[in-house]
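Q: what does this look like with flavin-adenine dinucleotide bound?
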Amino acid sequence: MNKKFDIVVIGAGLSSLMFLSRYIHNNKNQSILLIEKNKKRNINQTFCIWQGPDLIDIKKLYNLRARHVWNKIRVSYGDENVDKDIAPYSYECFDGNETLTNLLNQCKGKITFRRGLDVKKIKNHKDSVEIITSKGSIKTKYVIDSRNKISKKQYAYAPNLHQAFIGNEIIVEKEKFNPDLLTLMKFSRNKKDIEFTYILPFSKKKALVETTLFAKNPSLNNIQKIHNQSLIKHSKFRSIKKESGILPMILGRNYIDNNIIPIGLSAGMARPSTGYSMMRIAQWINSIENHKIESDNIKRFEFRPNKLLEWFDSIFLTVCYFWPQKAPILFMRLFSNADIKSIIRFMSDAPTIRDIIFIILSMPKKLMIHGLIKKYVK
Ligand SMILES: Cc1cc2nc3c(=O)[nH]c(=O)nc-3n(C[C@H](O)[C@H](O)[C@H](O)COP(=O)(O)OP(=O)(O)OC[C@H]3O[C@@H](n4cnc5c(N)ncnc54)[C@H](O)[C@@H]3O)c2cc1C
């Protein structure tokens, strides 16, 4: 490919496509190439977000259709259930394939898209960037890089946890799910890791049942064993879809390097304490709206998480890392004591100062103070 582009976007995943679907409207005069290593879209993902007052309206802004919306959530541990009516907020889920197809369609005719190009190396030259792919080199002025590249160095220090999960969308023979009530976290006793089941009921007979671990060294093989035990409880079922992943739960991230802008997971767009990224991606895009990528304003495109939330996440992750067996109590306390609206805004990176104060007051104080001391006293 000899043509030189203004911008090359690496990876046709969530962050790139959300970014492009908005960026192209205001910047029609820049030539953009999107490259993706996979020849076919082979994702099995369900993207979920909180929606409601003071949160970015993802459906409206990105022209997306939610697959299911819940207004009631449950968090449980042992025999204790905390059920919350979350209206006027909601928890909404989007089918991954449909979402990415829809976003890509919005870019059609405005960008060039090439599949099957695997980026091997990127070289910064004086007045251009060279991208070396499996099928030759491409020259460009700017690169948006969504590859998930987290270095060993970024993962070297505690609390370096991962969120690892395996989920199956299942259909059961007898009606057993309540499609109005989402199970956000059903904790299990586990001394080493934080373990919970996440259940998205789509109908009385159909649900996504996911086993999640916040762990130091997760192995999907081990999680599969735990997950199989959890699925057996649903007696006669048929699996129609499977998804899995290992997401970083660290504060380290990649920064802009000359004309290369990292985005997505490796740029810190996944919230360290939850692994959710869709809302952070949308917030970043809002923050750069109306700006064109040019050499004199490239730093503007750096993702900068809220410092207070980052600090809070670091204490929370320290607690999860050193005292995983106490984490279920922490979550149960939080969900039963704090105002659910504050929790939702907090988890969506949009808390008010009042929300933060309420969250702090609802946490088990002794445990959080231990986390604070452990973070600063090595
Ligand atoms: C199963 C699953 C469920 C999730 N659920 C949620 C959720 O409910 N809510 C939420 O907010 N977040 C969720 N996440 C987290 C996060 O939103 C997703 O991981 C999201 O896909 C991150 O977007 P991204 O653009 O950073 O990465 P990706 O979507 O993974 O995109 C990166 C793209 O780059 C391509 N690529 C990689 N290397 C190369 C290369 N060398 N050359 C060319 N292309 C390359 C990849 O093939 C991929 O298409 C989930 C993650 C997973 C894995």
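Residues 307-322 form the longest helix (16 residues). The radius of gyration is 21 Å.
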